[in-house]
Write a structure and sequence with these properties.
The protein starts with a helix and ends with a helix. Helix 5 packs antiparallel against helix 6. The strands form two sheets. The chain has a three-stranded antiparallel beta sheet. Strands 4-5 form a two-stranded antiparallel sheet. By secondary structure, the chain is mostly helical. The chain is built from eight helices and five strands; from the N terminus they run H-E-E-E-H-H-H-E-H-H-E-H-H. Strand 2 and strand 3 form a beta hairpin. It folds into two domains: 84 residues, no CATH class; 90 residues, no CATH class.
Length: 191
């Protein structure tokens, strides 16, 4: 269970200029070493920059080519979500459908996209994942080359930066990781 009060309290103290929390007793930050220690995911490897301009049309093409879904189904999913994103529910359906069809490459992509979309690359909706991340799994044999730890930290830092803007109503990112890190940082100060 996410402790919204604690998350909000620390998010209010985030300073994007220094990428740190300004607290009464000093500054603290979340480091890549913290992420590596908690998640045990690769922190070395190639950095990835997903395509920034993935629109509905490109998302539909990616659905058909990488997930093996019918064109009409891909159109329905992207239009239902009002953009280039997929719902976790739909990815789960694609996963089981492709397993049944013995299209294991497509099933693996759907599963991996669901996994990163609800953990390290989660957005504010907590129900959708951006289509731009599907391209990370285009070549399944090279998934291990990506530096997943820095990706998780960058997404969390981006949402922390956004949380400091006056118009922001909620925070995104891997909040479970954020909360555990806050507990560990807090405990290390007093015990």
């Amino acid at each position: 269970m996410i402790d919204g009060n604690m998350i909000s309290a620390f998010a209010e103290r985030w300073h994007a200029e220094t990428s740190s929390f300004h607290l009464p007793f000093g500054e603290m930050t979340i480091t890549l070493d913290d992420v590596r220690g908690l998640l045990s995911i690769p922190c070395t490897g190639e950095f990835f920059t997903p395509p920034a301009n993935v629109n509905e049309d490109l998302a539909i093409v990616a659905d058909v080519e990488l997930l093996g879904v019918a064109y009409d189904e891909a159109v329905t999913e992207t239009r239902t979500n009002r953009g280039a994103s997929y719902s976790f529910e739909w990815l789960k359906e694609v996963f089981f459908k492709k397993l049944h069809e013995r299209r294991y490459d497509c099933a693996a992509r759907a599963c991996l996209l669901h996994l990163v979309g609800c953990t390290i690359l989660v957005d504010k909706s907590f129900t959708l994942v951006s289509a731009k991340y599907l391209f990370l799994f285009q070549d399944l044999d090279s998934c291990g080359k990506w530096a997943w730890g820095p990706a998780a930290l960058v997404v969390l830092y981006d949402y922390l930066r956004d949380s400091t803007l006056p118009a922001t109503k909620q925070i995104g990112g891997y909040l479970s990781l954020f909360q555990v890190l806050l507990y560990l940082l807090y405990l290390s100060l007093f015990f």
